[in-house]
Design a protein that fits this description.
The protein has 262 residues and is of the alpha+beta class. It has helices spanning 5-9, 11-32, 50-66, 95-99, 171-180, 191-197, 211-214, 217-223, 250-261, and strands at 39-41, 47-49, 71-74, 78-80, 85-93, 106-113, 116-124, 129-134, 137-140, 143-144, 157-160, 183-186, 203-206, 227-229, 244-247. It holds the Pfam family Inositol_P.
Length: 262
């Protein structure tokens, strides 16, 4: 990853601001959580609630006020073009979890520099947990976070948000990889990526993701010692297909890619 020296020097300041944002919008999420909140279906059939829209509106307002030249890419309100920096935000990652009372939904705040993932934050409002990542350092609760030293799929703890997302040609790679792992579990949305960064699981395979679902995760996992790419092993970008593989170690990632390819 090639980033300007100015950006590297400012990483902590950007992350401090991201933490302020997460602190500010967390009460909005909690005020609607486990209430009779209504939702509507978007064009892709995914649900959206008033909480999603209120949180994104607040994030965009605060980002534009602090960094007016920066771009913003949000799930609910689209893209605002800017300079080399773009904030990539998902107000509620796991809206289905949110509306069904499952507490592991999160807010994702990422920052790209020259279109490359640079800084990221995962905030879990219902549990008060937070992961923050920048080049060279990922923290959980202010303490350095590291992935587990798992190097073989046969020893790995596998997660995906839902097996229902794997259809048609995606189903066979999912079954090959998840059945080759030592253990497989389902559910969690962005929370499972935090678990991977903290060494509690080792492999995550997903499909159908959008840039706001994964751009904040890349710096968190990479600085924790893991790898995250598409299913071909290519770096994730806003142009990626939505096929995501995350692994605790490079060796594990390479074996997982080979299994996916069959």
């Amino acid at each position: 990853m090639v980033l300007s020296s100015i950006a590297a020097e400012q990483a902590d300041a950007y992350l401090a601001f991201a933490a302020e944002l997460a602190d500010e919008v967390r009460p909005i999420a909690l005020s609607y959580f486990r209430t009779a909140v209504e939702f509507t279906a978007k064009s892709d059939d995914s649900p959206v609630t008033v909480a999603d829209r209120l949180i994104e509106a607040r994030l965009r307002e605060r980002i534009s006020a602090r960094y007016p030249s920066h771009g913003i890419y949000g799930e609910e309100m689209g893209v605002k073009q800017g300079d080399a920096f773009t904030w990539v935000i998902d107000p509620i990652d796991g809206t289905k979890s949110f509306i069904t009372g499952f507490p592991l939904f999160g807010t994702l705040i990422g920052l790209t520099c020259d279109r490359q993932p640079f800084c990221g934050l995962i905030d879990i409002p219902a549990t008060g947990e937070r992961w923050i990542g920048r080049p060279g350092l990922t923290t959980y609760g202010g303490v350095r976070s590291r992935t587990r030293d798992c190097r073989r799929v046969a020893d790995a703890r596998f997660y995906t948000t839902s097996p229902d997302t794997f259809a048609d040609a995606d189903r066979a790679p999912f079954e090959r990889l998840s059945n080759a792992a030592k253990m497989r579990r389902f559910g969690g949305d962005c929370y499972i990526y935090g678990l991977l960064a903290s060494g509690h699981c080792d492999l995550i395979l997903e499909t159908g993701l959008q840039p706001y679902d994964y751009m904040a995760l890349v710096p968190i996992l990479e600085a924790a010692g893991g790898r995250i790419t598409d299913w071909d092993g290519a770096p994730l970008s806003v142009e990626s297909s939505g096929h995501v593989l995350a692994s605790a170690t490079p060796a594990l990632h390479d074996e997982a890619l080979a299994i996916i390819r069959g």
